[in-house]
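Technical annex, item 7. During the second reporting period the consortium partners agreed on a shared format for inverse folding records so that results from different sites could be compared directly. Each record opens with the tokenized structure and is followed by the designed sequence. A conforming record, contributed by the partner at site C, is shown below for reference.
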């Protein structure tokens, strides 16, 4: 799911579709994929192709931070 989300997000080998990428990032994030947590949180935080939700973005950053990801720790600290 995470890899397919990246392919959709960047248009690698298939047409770019960031709305669909967000759905795949969310699915992978909800299954514990840290990279997808950050990608989905970034999209939520910026309102990129999905409705902006800063609170939900913070939750995903926190989950990634709790997994030991330093970048998400920084992003969560700035919320």
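Designed sequence (site C submission):
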């Amino acid at each position: 799911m995470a890899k397919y989300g990246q392919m959709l997000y960047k248009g690698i080998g298939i047409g770019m579709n960031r709305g669909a990428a967000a759905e795949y990032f969310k699915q992978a994030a909800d299954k514990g994929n840290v990279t997808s947590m950050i990608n989905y949180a970034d999209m939520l935080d910026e309102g990129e192709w999905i409705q902006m939700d800063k609170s939900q973005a913070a939750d995903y950053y926190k989950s990634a931070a709790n997994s030991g990801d330093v970048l998400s720790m920084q992003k969560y600290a700035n919320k």
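The helical segments are 2-10, 18-30, 34-46, 54-66, 70-77. The longest helix spans residues 18-30. All partners now use this format for quarterly exchanges.
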